[in-house]
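Example S7 (structure tokens).
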């Protein structure tokens, strides 16, 4: 059974520092951190002070549906109801066959000439977003060493498993910016 964890701002910052420690302990030293908008930006901003950061946008279709009026409703629901909704959403996602999202757009100029690129997102569900961004970066910068990191991997068989993560498969995380996070 999956467990829903709630990260307030302090816990989130601690977990980001822990992720940085895991990456650094592997011997990988990025000269740029590429955050995937929007959750990956929050993670990236807390990783590797003194290293250049840049950002790329590629959102899965369900992200837009969680904006606006729905957010107001979710924030008023009891925590156990929101946990049940998260578990149900995860169950539905686990039954789908993930497909690559395809990257259409421009990579940030901050990647030019970099030798060690760390791609960061908050969570990997299907893996389609991270895989698409990683493939675009590798194609554009074949000389670079590219690694991926995420706080959590929520499914058993994502299209890509990041090189570094803190929580695997049995966890769902409510981040400070999540639609159902109480203010």
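Recovered sequence:
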């Amino acid at each position: 059974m999956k467990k829903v964890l709630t990260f307030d701002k302090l816990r989130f910052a601690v977990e980001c520092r822990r992720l940085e420690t895991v990456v650094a302990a592997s011997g990988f030293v990025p000269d740029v951190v590429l955050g995937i908008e929007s959750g990956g930006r929050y993670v990236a901003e807390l990783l590797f002070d003194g290293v250049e950061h840049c950002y790329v946008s590629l959102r899965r279709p369900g992200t837009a549906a969680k904006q606006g009026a729905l957010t107001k409703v979710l924030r008023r629901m009891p925590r156990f109801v929101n946990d049940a909704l998260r578990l149900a959403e995860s169950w539905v996602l686990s039954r789908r066959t993930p497909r690559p999202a395809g990257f259409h757009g421009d990579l940030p100029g901050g990647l030019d000439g970099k030798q060690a690129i760390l791609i960061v997102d908050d969570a990997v569900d299907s893996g389609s977003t991270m895989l698409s961004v990683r493939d675009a970066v590798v194609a554009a910068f074949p000389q670079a060493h590219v690694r991926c990191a995420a706080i959590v991997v929520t499914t058993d068989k994502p299209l890509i498993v990041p090189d570094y993560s803190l929580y695997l498969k049995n966890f769902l995380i409510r981040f400070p910016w999540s639609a159902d996070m109480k203010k």
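Notes on this example. DSSP finds six helices and seven strands in the chain.
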